[in-house]
Amino acid sequence: MSIDLPPGQTVTRRFPLFTVDPTEPLAPERFALRVGGAVERRIELNWEALQSLGEEPLEHDFHCVTGWTRTRTRWQGVPAARVLELAQPKPKAVWALAWARGGYSASLPLEDLTAPGVLLAWELDGAPIPHEHGGPVRLVVPHLYGWKSVKWLAKIQLFEREVEGYWEMRGYHRRGDPWREERYG
Predict the structure, then answer these.
(1) List of domains in the chain
(2) Which is more confident, 147 or 24?
(3) What is the pLDDT of residue 3?
(4) Which of 44, 66, 72, 154 minimizes the C-alpha distance to 106?
(5) Relative to the CA of 158, which of 3, 87, 97, 183 has its CA 20 to 30 Å away?
(6) Per-residue pLDDT for 158 more than 60?
(7) Does the global pTM surpass 0.90?
């Protein structure tokens, strides 16, 4: 059986670890997500409030900018669009920064953050996401390279202009579509 891969990618069954700002493990009951910036209503969701929004499964290939793809990776979580609905993005909001607890950030066009399949995930392959892979909650943006899928998610900020996250400030592509090989700007 052949696997359809983006250009320059090879398959791995492992899930390699790349981390810019390692952080200490956090118990789910201590989790909090803040959503602010260009929104009508700033919100903060704890673990129970986030899970009460409902959950959906996602099975999708996970592509890293360094050239590996982990096929059929299974996630479970709440759609990012559902969380942002609560905050009511302002009409001119077009860009977002997703922040990890340690300060790492990734920038995303708002349309990518709210696309179908984008999750705030708490399960990986049928179990709670291990700390080293971003647990208790990780942003999963399956249609973009993995650096956009922020581990240890703590905050989402919306903006009325384009902004840059950690890797975008260092020359990575502003969007990161693996099918277009948008690795570097």
Answers:
(1) 32-180 (3.90.420.10)
(2) 147
(3) 77
(4) 154
(5) 183
(6) yes
(7) yes
